[in-house]
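Figure S4 source data
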Amino acid sequence: MRTLTLTLRGGARVAVVAAQWYDAFGVVTRGRVQLELRDGEPGPVLGRDAGFWLRGTGVRALRNPGRRTARVRVLTPGPGPSYAGRHPRTPATERWRSGMNTMDDAGVVAGPAAGPTRRTHRLARLAGTGLLATLAAMAATTLGAALARAAGVDFEVPEGGESIPLPGFAVVTGFFSVLGIVIAAALLHWSTRPAERFVWTAVSVTALSWVPPLLCGADTATITALLGLHLVPAAVMIPVLAHSLRELLLA
């Protein structure tokens, strides 16, 4: 049996190569470690003394979701007849065997997975994707408002007695879409499950946005149109930003 101690600093990530960690068993000896699954979904977060098998579990990486340093002791079978009979002899496994022979109880330190440069790059990618989605949401909402007006909806709000102009729909949509990008960026930086938390937050905010139209005192056609137009940018922004967060978390 060979052992390898992994030290993961805050935010660090270590990829799991199936050919190398074929039959390994890991034990968290300090801090917390999150298992990153191969289907793109974040796995469970394990605390101290928790153990896990890597063989056949679909784990693609180990990640430290916190700021404090975490340690994992990885145990792999040593070379021998039974080991060789269960593992194919490939260049990758041979390099791993020879490496483990000389790394008995050695330490490997993984630095932060997202340093300043990488973090900035990830935020820039998220912002770029979000701004493109914002433009699409503004165009779709304005088009929807124009079609509703052509169908006879006056968008007149009793308070003030004026009709909502078409540019107003674009401005409001743009403002709240950019706010959604800011929320997504914050979750990407602070949360271990940014996509799921963003969807929950965005859906909740969308539901709350229905309150003003329902209380504005406008006619039924205007209220119905306003409720529908609130769903248009949500239908554009939420899936795009959630998908982007999932991709960036695994990048």
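Figure S5 source data
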Amino acid sequence: MNRRELNPDESPVAAFGERLRRLRDERGWTQDELGARMGYSGTHISAVETGRRSPTPRFSARADKAFGTGDEFERQGRAARDTALLEGFPEYIGYERQAAEIRLYEVGVIPGLVQTPDYAEILAASAVKRGAITDDQAHERISLISERQASLIRTPPPLVLVVLDESCLRRPIGDSAVMAEQLGRLLEFAELPHTVLQVAPFAMGARRPFNLPITVLTLADRSLMSYAESAQRGHLERESTFVLPTLTAYHQLQAEALSQRASVAMIAELRKGTS
């Protein structure tokens, strides 16, 4: 059986998962056996160990009880939750790295998968200035964006379909040089053989099926899942009964959006205005 290598330096969530696995291995327990001791399924244990799920206070307390570690897991769990990442997002990232197809729609800002470093740093610095995150959390956000983009360069690469609301292009982030570079990155992205880039123009009006960002993943076994965020947490939906209508709405969005050729022309024209 292939086991995913864990890097505790990736994030506090990864450090928690690595320690959980290490202590479990030392005792010779399987994930199912540890799950039985803690009141969770083996699948849940696996998701926490690999960073696809953040440890809740209840989970951390039960880990301390199972391993006899006092409150060490509780303290480490607080550090894992004191992160710039929404609950649910680490789990999503685990699936994104495996996806055969990624469909995403974004409103207001360029999505992380196609952000330039300067664009990402300005967004993170703004969040720090507002007191929303710390400097360390800003670094975590920027590092994760780089890792996510690198994970797309694999063999074979995933098919990545991106629809951007026009507001993503027209909202200025940083100075004109930053925006020019960012729009240039979008043009480069559109030229790749495994990508599709479209713009949902303001003129779509009420025909736009989504008011919030949405992502739909297709895994190698053709199973589907969707991911969406509220202000408090991210939600990963695996039940096909709920994912299929989202996929249908995404196809409707693509049909109403500008073609890639027209989208590229719009982006190129906007880029001229930043020079």
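The beta strands are 101-106, 159-165, 195-200, 214-218, 224-229, 234-237. The domain at 89-112+154-272 is CATH 3.30.870.10 (Endonuclease; Chain A).
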